[in-house]
Design a protein that fits this description.
By secondary structure, the chain is α/β, with parallel strands linked by helices. 32% of the residues lie in helices and 17% in strands. The protein folds into two domains: 416 residues, 3-Layer(aba) Sandwich (Peroxisomal Thiolase, Chain A, domain 1), CATH 3.40.47.10; 50 residues, no CATH class. An eleven-stranded mixed β-sheet has the order 3-2-4-5-1-6-13-12-7-8-10, with helices on both faces. It has a two-stranded antiparallel sheet with strand order 9-11. Strands 14-15 form a two-stranded antiparallel sheet.
Amino acid sequence: KKYIYKQVAGKKLEKEEAKELLLELEGCSGKEVERDRVAIIGIGLRFPDSDTALEYWTNLCERKSSIGEFPKERERDWAEDEERHGKKYKKGGYLARIDTFDAALYNIAPSEAKYMNPLQRIFLETATEAVEDAGYAGTRIKKTKTGVYVGMDHTSKLEYPPEEHKSNPLSITGSWTGILASRVSYVLNLRGPSLVIDTACSSGLVAVHTACKAIQNRECEMALAGGICLEMKPAAEDDALSMVASQDDKVRTFDRSANGTVWGEGVGVVLLKPWKKAVEDGDHIYAIIKGSAVNNDGTSNGITAPDAEAQEEVLTAAWEDAGIEPESISYIEAHGTGTVLGDPIEVKGLTNAFAKYTMKKQFCGIGSVKTNIGHTVAASGMASLLKVVLSLQKGKIPAALNFEEPNGYISFATSPLYVVDQTREWKRERGPRRAGVSAFGFSGTNCHMVLEEAGQTERREESGTGGMEVWTVSARTEEALLELLKRYLEYLERQEVIGKEAMCYTANTGREHRAIRLAIL
């Protein structure tokens, strides 16, 4: 410190540079420091039984299991496929429909939409929802330096379009994997980087990590980041991954009866922005990403085997990047696949990581959304992230399902962890609520992220005069307008009091105005 002060006094070091060095030294001393933070200002999602954040949260709180039979509506898609004929499909966490798309909404010709892989269609729709959720629809986001980062597991996702249509030129852009991200940039006219990231099961969370670093490095002003997983052809009973599949079609994370995982589908997208800029612009902030880290197992017991030491290292690296005291973390959303050996390795990594900073026992809750919706592979990190984001916002931690007795290889009593097996209020004990989210890839690539509740930020103040406001809502068709009004009603019935001035401001300025319109005074 004395050396830095001397350099400033001798005019050999700028004050701002000195400040950064001093803050870095404070970080080395174990004290919490202020770093560049990233705000989550918009979310879009589709998971089994959930097309909105409200449905997702309600299902989690009601302890609903969304693992079931393959939808009959989608089974008809393969009725004439002789290869699939007569095969029994495995239970899983499936989306109800993946074949619907309003091409005209995005100015895409029906002939082109036909050749777009459902992955492209659904990610585009969900990314658009995240933008609209943040109040940046239409001209507010066009030509901005906004990046798009999407995690996708490419393996066995290339069945679209069918072989007989692959000679059509539109099938190239419609199914080329790199265009999964670029399609969003093209439709929304975004000028930031567009990347598709594949690290298998950790792809989605790695995409968010990469987007955060791009924002901090000034490569983009905002970023859409997420992950997606769809099964165009359903998994049959003789699927190649049956060796890690649950025998009773339940994910029993951390439980003595755990015997494997169940596969699921989903997509989750967040709109990210520098925290200071989000506060300055009056954006609604769901949660703050304090820090994150990525690493790889390297040479372990096997190329697909998890490694406790590597997981420990990625945890401590993320905590150091966040500049926090690990003991201030009160919940971890685990990767938690429900496999006999994977779960104990994850707990071992967490226990060893915490032991470097504290000897306190059972102060941090742990759970896994895979018990609700299954393992959504490249989207699994997003399912976990969005569960934590909503939990921080609501001040409540939903229970993990199917936990009765601890896995025999795990000693929770001597660890810093306990399983959240009952939905509980999330009390503040040491400052703001904080949580960690883990996604460990079948590829060996691991990611951990630290989140913090948004806290109170300055809001657009209501005048309180009781004057009239104009509220506008619009859609492309009357049917869509009625559906939108229904969603507004469901939202208002479940939310706390919302000021009419703020509500009207967002509806009038943060949404696109379409052909079928309604205005209410």
